[in-house]
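FORM 12-B: Structure-to-Sequence Request
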């Protein structure tokens, strides 16, 4: 499945603009992480783009989220490695623990997008262009800020060999590249 087909598929399931922004942000971050790690950029970006394809049909039910996505993606003939990473980005639904580089990258990468997005929104112009890496990492220690963002999951970046500062910088720069597409 190419990028255009994947976006059409995503939009057939996701109508909420903010969720689409999240998926586009995740796509950009996963592409950048794949580049940094020497992995398949298209495969990782596709996982980022499609990871929350079932969020509206599961209505936030953490016991079903990602499992419904597996069925959707499998019917579309999506690569099993992508399906596995998508499934494991919500390990609570599976009862399993993440164990592969791709699983850790998707979980950490899609999670940090929420922290970066929230950080941009506290800036006067509400734009990502002025956000600094240190602003993002500083907010990692502020539990009340973007309280729903799981900091433990973000720290899984270390399991793929990327320290938090570098991970935040890679992710922030990736999101800056798609700022217009994600409303920032």
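FORM 12-B RESPONSE
SEQUENCE OUT:
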């Amino acid at each position: 499945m190419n990028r255009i087909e994947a976006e059409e598929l995503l939009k057939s399931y996701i109508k909420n603009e903010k969720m689409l922004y999240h998926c586009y942000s995740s796509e950009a971050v996963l592409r950048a992480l794949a580049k940094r790690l020497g992995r398949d950029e298209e495969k990782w970006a596709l996982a980022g783009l499609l990871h929350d394809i079932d969020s509206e049909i599961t209505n936030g039910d953490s016991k079903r989220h990602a499992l419904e996505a597996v069925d959707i993606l499998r019917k579309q003939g999506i690569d099993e490695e992508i399906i596995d990473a998508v499934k494991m980005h919500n390990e609570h639904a599976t009862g399993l623990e993440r164990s592969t580089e791709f699983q850790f990258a998707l979980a950490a990468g899609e999670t940090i997008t929420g922290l970066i997005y929230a950080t941009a929104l506290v800036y006067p112009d509400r734009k990502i262009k002025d956000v600094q890496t240190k602003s993002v990492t500083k907010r990692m220690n502020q539990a009340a800020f973007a309280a729903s963002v799981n900091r433990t999951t973000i720290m899984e970046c270390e399991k793929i060999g990327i320290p938090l500062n570098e991970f935040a910088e890679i992710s922030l720069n990736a999101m800056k590249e798609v700022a217009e597409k994600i409303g920032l």
